[in-house]
Amino acid sequence: MNALAAHLPDAAGLIARRAGILTYQSPVVYMRVDCEICRSEGFEAQTRVEIEWKGRTVIATVHHVAADWLGHGEAGLSEPAWRVLGLSGGEMLAIRHPPVLESERHIRGKTYGASLDYEKLKTIMHDVAAGRLSDLHLASFVTATAGGRMSHEETVALTRAMIDVGERLHWPFSPVMDKHCVGGLPGNRTTPLVVAIVTACGLVMPKTSSRAITSPAGTADTMETLAPVNLDLQAMRRVVEKVGGCIVWGGSVQLSPADDVLIRVSRPLDLDGTAQLVASVLSKKAAAGSERVLIDIPVGPTAKVRSEEAADELGGLLEHVGEAVGLQLRVVRTDGTQPVGRGVGPALEARDVLAVLQRDSAAPADLRERALLLAGHLLEIGGKAGPGAGYALAQQALDSGQAWTQFVAICEAQGGLRQPPVAPHVRPYLAGAAGVVTAVDNRKLAMVAKLAGAPGAPAAGITLEVKLGDRIARGQPLFHVHAQTTGELEYAQAYANRQQGLVTIEEIA
């Protein structure tokens, strides 16, 4: 028994070794299958253990190793665990059973139909943010609260709990503007345009955005091809104070950290319940110090929100919870029947954004119009334009070049404007018949872009060549696939060739 363990009768000691394994947000500890501590403490595979070094602790999941790369007396740590503990290698770690968590009992109760009040939800969210709950418990919570199992009161309490376990920004000016799109629509990259227009008109908009988890691009992924987005809170404040707005990755400023963990678990389960969506969106808006918020709900058969009835339910809940947490909210519905713009993928969407800002004659008109509509609403609720006059003011800011000048200023303040990359491999997907485009499948087109490498390869994705109502000839390109490697290009093309209804064409008699 080593000296540290001798002074910690409730803990066993192993020497820290960096495993160099990326496990996203899940801390993992690798221990030999023949480890004496594992046998004596009952640390089976998938057991949760608490690891401590110099007062820092992390809850990690045990994975057993049956190979000799890990020595006797060593504990291999994944990158998330290594970062939390701040190790350099060779430290003696105290490893013990974690304390029994009250939040596990609350999750179990919800599974059996019990309601959750603010205090219980705050306990759960605190443990979620601290990484104390296993993925099994997280999945149980996500499942138990999906499918309409959360009341309006519980949704308000969940939103407040998410806000209260993270950082909350406070700005020295008012009003602070924000926007969010509930998603499900490829290419809908309006945020950089809206931020540029709204801040060019004198409003303040410190925008934190997400990276893609299951989509071909998030706003942060797209913006990162144009300027740095990994700004900490101090850097973000400096940018906003200098130019009135920013577009940064929310993960770098740690707002509503419990939500980031829940998203990681809920997306693979394909459980995006209304209550969790509302709590996710509004907790981050409140945490960012926003006061007046525009919510965009695209509605379409292959969008996230597929019917007017679903939009009614979601919009009503957003307004109810927004009012409860002190946000002035406006909800708008937009067309979700087809992708927006031409590009789907970080760099391709960035090129569309630049084309609109630079008033290029070939810029996608639908992206421009959607951005003007949303910016107009924000200018109205921000007090810069009267009712119905926001669109015209937004159009003036864009067409005069003010929005482009402001966007350049934002990029320079964040670290410098750069040109988005170009993929080395491009291949067309051709129409099999002549006719009129009557439908497109947002989800399947997004999958083609992802299989081509987006967002991991920023230049990858697809460019759409047709819109609903277009008349096309047999052999005409419907879209082009962009990839960094020939393998990804072939993979995406093979998927597209197997699908029915990617782009539906009604043949001309």
Beta content comes to 15-25%
Supply the number of structural domains.
Answer: 4
CATH-defined architecture of the largest domain: 3-Layer(aba) Sandwich
Shape label:
globular
Can you give the mean pLDDT?
93
How far is the first residue's CA from the last residue's CA?
Answer: 85 Å
Give the name of the CATH superfamily of the largest domain: Nucleoside phosphorylase/phosphoribosyltransferase catalytic domain
Number of helices: 19
CATH class of the largest domain: Alpha Beta
- Report the strand count: 18
Q: Using the CA coordinates, give the radius of gyration.
A: 25 Å
Helix content: 40-55%
Q: Give the biggest beta sheet.
A: 6 strands, mixed, barrel
Secondary structure topology:
Elements: H1 3-6, E1 12-18, E2 28-32, H2 36-41, E3 48-53, E4 56-65, E5 74-77, H3 79-85, E6 92-96, H4 102-111, H5 118-129, H6 135-144, H7 152-164, E7 177-181, H8 191-200, E8 205-209, H9 219-224, H10 233-243, E9 245-249, H11 257-269, H12 274-287, E10 292-299, H13 308-324, E11 328-335, E12 343-344, H14 346-357, H15 365-381, H16 390-399, H17 402-414, E13 425-430, E14 435-440, H18 442-451, E15 461-464, E16 471-472, E17 477-483, H19 486-498, E18 503-507
Parallel strand pairs: 1-5, 2-4, 7-10, 8-9, 10-11
Antiparallel strand pairs: 1-6, 2-5, 3-4, 3-6, 12-15, 13-17, 14-16, 14-18, 15-17
Helix pairs in contact: 4-5, 4-6, 5-7, 5-11, 6-11, 7-12, 7-13, 8-15, 8-17, 10-17, 12-13, 15-16, 18-19
